[in-house]
Amino acid sequence: MTGMTKARICLWYNGDAEDAANFYAGVFPDTRVISVQRSPADYPDGLLGNVLVVEFSVMGIECIGLNGGDQFPQSESFSFQIATDTQEETDRYWNAIVDNDGQESMCGWCKDKWGLNWQITPRALTDAMSSPDRAAAGRAMQAMMTMRKIDIAGIEAAFADETA
Fold first, then answer.
1. Among 20, 56, 76, 82, which is most buried by a count of CB atoms within 10 Å?
2. Can you give the pTM of this predicted structure?
3. How far apart are CA 22 and CA 153, in angstroms?
């Protein structure tokens, strides 16, 4: 990577890093595949010429997809948090992940088919939860705890105490 930053995120895949990077590039703005590096020799989980490393960015964050095998699956201990401004944007990202063999979870979390976790987080939720009105923030948090994909109108109603 020309002009490479000193720190990048390395994500471990089981042979399908290029597919994942291409999917992310098709879903998220400012996301692209930068390079694909093929193995110069056989290795424990692959052969000479297999895709070994994919350099890509996700919304400007530089990443490496390493096809390292099945020893280290993705876990919830790492996720990308994507801030959204509208329900339409929230729905678009959430649905792209879940509808492509992904899985829903709670509180705005979902998992793509490669096991990578995503938090699709509307700014309305972040703003509500950081409000100095702690009672309103608490209502917004309680509403979020019942949701899978975040419903901005539901968060705003709970924050305003209009849910009764």
1. 56
2. 0.91
3. 32
